[in-house]
Amino acid sequence: MMEILIDGDNLAGWLAKEGYIAHRRDDEGLMRLLRRWQRRVLSQGQDHWITLVLDPGPNRDHSSHQDQIWVTIAQNGGTADGLLLEMLEEDLVEGRSLRESRVVTSDRDLREQLQALGVRVIRVPDFARRLLRGLPPRTEKPAPGAPGFEDVERELLARALRRPRRRRLRAEEIAQLRTAVERLSSETVEDRLAAARQLSRLPDRRAALALIEALRDPSPRVRAEAARGLGPLGYRRLARAHLIQALEDTDPRVREAAAGALGQLGDSWAIPALRHLAEMESTARVRRAAWEALRRIGEAQGPEAFFG
């Protein structure tokens, strides 16, 4: 199944300039267009995932997903370009194939680096033409948010749904992934726990993104299971900032699980936060988890992880 990774602010800037969304930070307008396109191509039997990568900013504080569109935000002052590159570099290091990956960007430096890695790049204007196919030209269309704009979307969706659906057969793990993601929205804690456990066994970026989102679940049991599941998946650069934040969770089970996951990831970036936890934590089992994580990171990274 193809994965399309989108430099979100780059695409939004182009769409805003052309008048299809209100401004380059109009995340709602961008998502509306992406969902419209996603529904259209799915109705034609073309199955894929979208990962939208955004720069940090107001009201952009967590990852989320909807209609097979995953949104992830650069953390710790990073940029979408940097996160995109890190995600794909990590895929290569871990031996994951990039054959089914496409990146949408017009950033020249990023494009050159991705092409050097062997990643296929789609320029923003080329992707935008697919995204906007069927919409009236900007000189004829209503303004974004106006009633006429929504009417156009509804009509196009109705046309798409009238076409016969020709869905390709999905691999077993893709079906499991979709089921688990759906169960994360269940009202039952036990269902959400089972979904988090299942996702931890699926080595896919979307599984990691779903578990990151589950770190905000109202149940501490689910949050702990989500943190625990991020360790074996190995998406270190994607997960580390969220796991470090989970070290401050109000529930000791979540703090313990986050410490264990950071130890599994072997990420030296977590050393200061783990040291603080090991020294200041009041719960004994959480302190032990923090010290064990520090020991594992030391073994994975070597003494320089601690002493530079």
Description of the structure:
The structure is a single chain. The protein is an alpha/beta fold. The protein folds into two domains: 2-162, Rossmann fold (3-Layer(aba) Sandwich), CATH 3.40.50; 172-307, Leucine-rich Repeat Variant (Alpha Horseshoe). The protein is built from 15 helices and six strands. The chain has helices spanning 8-17, 27-43, 80-93, 108-116, 124-131, 147-162, 172-183, 189-199, 205-214, 220-233, 236-246, 252-265, 271-280, 284-301, 304-307; strands spanning 2-7, 48-54, 64-66, 69-73, 101-104, 120-122. A six-stranded mixed sheet has the order 3-4-2-1-5-6. Helix 13 (271-280) runs antiparallel to helix 14. The radius of gyration is 21 Å and the shape is globular. It starts with a strand and ends with a helix. Mean pLDDT is 82; it is low at 159-169 and 301-308.
SSE layout and pairing:
Blueprint: E1 2-7, H1 8-17, H2 27-43, E2 48-54, E3 64-66, E4 69-73, H3 80-93, E5 101-104, H4 108-116, E6 120-122, H5 124-131, H6 147-162, H7 172-183, H8 189-199, H9 205-214, H10 220-233, H11 236-246, H12 252-265, H13 271-280, H14 284-301, H15 304-307
Parallel strand pairs: 1-2, 1-5, 2-4, 5-6
Antiparallel strand pairs: 3-4
Helix pairs in contact: 2-6, 7-8, 8-10, 9-10, 10-11, 10-12, 11-12, 12-14, 13-14
